[in-house]
Amino acid sequence: MSSLRYLQVDVFAERAGGGNPLGVVFGADAWSDQDMQRFAAWTNLVETTFVLAPAEQAASYRLRIFTPAKEIPFAGHPTIGSAHAALEIGHVAPRDGLLIQECAAGLLPIRVEGEAAARQLYVQAPAARILREGADDPLLRTVIGDAPLGVLPPAFVEGGRRWWLAEFASESALRAWRPDHAAIAALARAGDSLGLCCFARAHAHEEKSSARSAARDCQLVVRAFPAGVGIVEDPASGAANGLIAAYIAQREPQGALARGYRVSQGREMGHDATIDIRIEADGAVWVGGRSHTIIDGRVLQRIAVG
Questions:
Q1: Which residue of 56, 91, 110, 164 shows the fewest CB atoms closer than 10 Å?
Q2: Residues 71, 37 contacting (CB under 8 angstroms)
């Protein structure tokens, strides 16, 4: 077979190495579903994407997203990272500052701001709805245990993907939390969700160390545990952060975070991701940040069965 272009990208990072890795393959239109899944399992990245010719005329390209175990309809960091890769190699060009991604979640607009190393990309997250609210679910209670919770009650939210959300009472409590990952997996299976995403409002006085790095000016701290797709903890979660933003905007429309904020995620895993959230007056949520190309190479052959 002819070789295919492959980029490995660091997504949602001010500096290379702090964000969430992503593999991006171009030109695999002739590959089967099984070919793509085997390749994603081989890369063993949180997600691997395939940039394909669009089926919709309005789309810039079509994107398929795979974890090592399954295909998923939408995720934020693969969307932002794939758009970055497509722009980097000249595969696409924005029209009126926009790319249109075709994926299983529909046609999603991506804003392109700046160029080259200064480029920032923002995807409009799928509309979110609250399915359940409160901590009365017995599996959720098992997961949370006696962890101190924040102002907003836990919620089960859907928007492209399903997540349980839980606000912690403080940044320090969230950063120090040691969750039961088996219990989160049971919670994810019961509701056909990715798992649990926890957040806390950042408070600068809680930490005086200069190790805060890029997190110093963040207003929200997030930790995501997508046990539903076999991942223990995610260093940067675009889709989950989109759901958190929609939940906050709906429940606190006049609050300090109602029009957007910056997120710190991944420091507990040795990462230092930053995710920018913009919330428009109509409730539309845009999730964005910077990406960095780490590897630019070729895929020489498909992965064999077995």
A1: 56
A2: yes
Domain boundaries, the chain: 4-119+290-299, 129-284
| HSE (side-chain half, CA atoms, 13 Å) at 262 | 15
Place domain 129-284 in its CATH homologous superfamily. Answer: Diaminopimelate Epimerase; Chain A, domain 1 (3.10.310.10)
How many angstroms separate the CA atoms of 158 and 153, rounded?
A: 16
- Choosing among 3.20.20.100, 3.10.310.10, 3.20.20.150, 3.40.50.2000, the CATH entry for 4-119+290-299 is 3.10.310.10
* 11 vs 291: CA distance, rounded Å: 4
The two structure tokens encoding residue 5: 């272009």
Question: Among 84, 81, 89, 88, which residue's Cα sits nearest to residue 112?
Answer: 84
**Whole-structure pTM value:** 0.92
Q: What is the pLDDT of residues 267-302, one digit of tens each?
A: 999 999 999 999 999 999 999 999 999 999 999 999
Beta strand 98-103 with 71-72 is unpaired
* CA–CA separation, 235 and 242 (whole Å): 15
Within a 10 A sphere around the Cβ of 145, how many other Cβ atoms?
A: 10
The number of helix segments (H) and strand segments (E) in the chain equals: 6, 17
- Of 97, 60, 96, 268, which is closest to residue 172 (Cα–Cα)? 268
- Can you tell me the distance from the alpha carbon of 114 to that of 18, in angstroms, rounded to the nearest whole number? 21
Summarised one tens digit per residue, pLDDT across range 209-246 is 444 444 458 999 999 999 998 889 999 999 999 999 99
Q: What is the pLDDT of residue 209?
A: 45
Pairwise CA distance, residues 105 & 126, whole Å: 7
